[in-house]
Amino acid sequence: MTFRTRILLACLTVAAVPLLILAAGARHVVRERLTEQYREDVERSTTYVQTELTSAAAQLDQRVRTLAGRIVDQPATRAALLESQTGAALLDYAPDAMQLTGTDFLLLLDERGTVLSSGHFRNDYGRELPGLLELDRTAGPAVVAAHRPGGEFTALVRARAFDLAGRRFMVVAGLEIDSAFVSRLTTRAAALTVSLEHPGGIITSGTPAPEDAVTKTIPVPFVTSETAAAVGATWTISHSLEPLHAIVRLVDRWFVIALGTALLLAFVIARLLAARVTQPLERLARSASRVELTRYDVKLSTSRRDEIGSLSRLLDRMVQRLRAGARQLRDAERRATVGDMARQVNHDIRNGLLPIRNVIHHLTEVAQQTPAELGAVFSERAGTLQGGIGYLEDLATNYARLTPRTERRPCDVNAVIEALRDAGTPDDDRLTLELARTLPSATADPVALRRVLENLVINAMESLPEDEGRVTVRTEEAGTTNDHRVTITVTDTGAGIATDALDRIFDDFYTTKERGTGLGLSIVRRLVTDMGGRIRVQSEPGRGTTFMVDLPVEGLNG
User: What is the pLDDT of residues 389-442, one digit of tens each?
Assistant: First the structure.
C-alpha cells in the first residue's frame, strides 16, 4: 500500500468515523426521546379514556337508577310486573324508556334473567339471558354483545337491581360502542388510536396499531347474554411509531448527505495533502536513485525548512560520509591487493628459487669434494639454472601487471611436468612420473600450469614422512566428446588431510603448516579456474592425498 493511499484512507476514516458516531448517537437520542414522548401521550390518552368511560358509566348509573325508581312509582308497570302479565304496559316500557333516557340498549329482567321488556329488540321478550345478571356485581362499566333487527352491536352498559313485593328485578341500560364512540375518546394526536378488543371482534378509531406501537391497555368486563361467565375485553390506546420512523429516515437521509459531502471533501483534501507530501519525496527518491559513490554532481540537500528538508539534508550528509568511506575503502582494498600480490610473488619466487638453490648447493658440494668434475657437472646442470632463471623472468613479466593475467593457449602438459622434474626438487628419487605417451595439447598457460604443479608437488613432498613415501605425477586423457580433457594427478603417500580440513584447504590464508602462508592451494585453485579447468582432492588420513587437475583439450573445450 502506497503512502498516498494511506493518507487517503486516514483522511476518509477521520471524516467518516465522527459522522457515523454522531449519526448513531443522534438516531438513538431521537428514538429514545420521541418514544418517551409517545409514552407520555399514550399515558395522557389513557387517563382521558378512563375519565370518559367513568363519566359515561356515571351517566348510565344515574339513568338506570332513575328508571328503577320510576318503575316502582308507575302503578301499571308495577302491577304488570307483580302479576307477570304480558301486555302493552311491559312491552312498551323499554322502548319508551330508551327514548326517554337517550340510550341505545335497555332491558328489563326478572330474577332468572328472563327478558320482560326490550328497548332495542322487542322480540327479545321472554328470552333467557342469565349472563346479564352478572352486571349487578361489576364495579365499573361493562361491555355487552347484543343484537337488534339491524344486526349485532356492542354496548357499554350499567345495571341496577331493585326489589318489588319480595321479588327482584333488574334494569340494564347502555350506549352503543361504534367507531364514532371510540373516535370521541381519542385526543388531537393523529397518530393515536383507541380500540376496543373483545371476543366478538375489534372496534377501532382508525387503522389498527402495528406491533411496535407504544400501547397501554384498560381491561373491562365483557358479559355475554347467553352464559353466566364473564370474559375479558380490553380498551387499547396506542401511538404508532411511523412518525418516529419518518423522522429517523429524514435524519438518516441528511446524515448520508453530510457523510457523502465530508468524504468528498476529505478525498479532495487527502489528494492535495498527499501530493504536497509525496511529490517532494518522489523528487528526493529520484535524486537518491542517481546517487553513486563516485559521482559528485548529485546533491540531496534542499532549502526547505520542513521535515522533508531535514530528511534531504540528513541524506545528503549520509551520502557524503559514504563517499568518504568509499574512498577509504578503495584505498584499503588497494593496499590489501598490493599486500596479497606481494605474498603471491614471495610464494612463487620462493618456489622458483628452489631448483636454482638445489643446483648451487649441488655445485658447491662438487667444488668441495671433486673439483675436477665441477665443469662437467656445471654443464649438466646449466639447463636447470637457465630454466629456473627463465621461469623467474616469466613470473616477473607476469607480475608486472597489477593483476597477473592468465593466457590460455595450446600447452604440452607432459613437457611442463618434465621441465619441473629437470629443474630439480628435494628428494628427486622420491618423485615418480607416469606420463601418458600420447596426450593431446591442453588449453592452458604454461607458466600458470608450472606454478600449479610446483605447489602441488612441493606440498606432496612436504607431507611425506622422513625417508619414506613417494609422490607420483600421472597424466591421462579422459572425458567424453563433449567434455574432453587432460587429467593431471598428483598422489602422495603422506599423512593425508583431516576430514574437517578438506572443505577449507583452498581458502585464503588457511594452512596447517607452522610457517605456511596459506596461499599455495588458494593460488592453485584460482589459476586452474582461470585456465578453464577444475581441481579435485581426495584424502584419507594416514594413507595419503590425491589432487586431480582437469584441463580442457585444445579445440574442444574452453
Answer: 766 766 666 655 444 566 788 989 999 888 888 766 545 678 889 998 889 988
Is residue 412 packed enough to be buried (19+ CB in 10 Å), middle (13-18) or exposed (0-12)? middle
Distances in Å between the alpha carbon of 523 and those of 48, 63, 70, 443, 531? 115, 136, 146, 19, 12
Q: In CATH, what is the architecture of 406-558?
A: 2-Layer Sandwich (3.30)
SS3 36: helix
Dist. CA 153–CA 104, nearest whole Å: 10
pTM score of the predicted model: 0.49
pLDDT digits (tens, 9 = 90+) for 245-288: 888 888 889 889 988 898 898 888 888 887 777 777 777 777 77
Question: Among all chains, which residue has been given the C-alpha cell 382508525?
Answer: 206
Task: Supply 264's cell numbers.
Answer: 468528498
Which residues of the chain are in CATH 3.30.565.10 domains? 406-558
Q: Which three cell numbers stand for residue 46?
A: 389513557
Can you tell me the distance from the alpha carbon of 118 to that of 171, in angstroms, rounded to the nearest whole number? 10
Cell numbers given for 60? 348510565
Helix residue spans in 74-112 (DSSP H): 75-83, 88-91, 93-101
Measured CA to CA, the distance from residue 227 to residue 205 in angstroms comes to: 29
Q: Which helix (H) or strand (E) holds 239?
A: strand 230-239
Contact, 538 vs 546, CB < 8 A? yes
Tell me the helices (H) and strands (E) count for the chain, helix number first.
12, 16
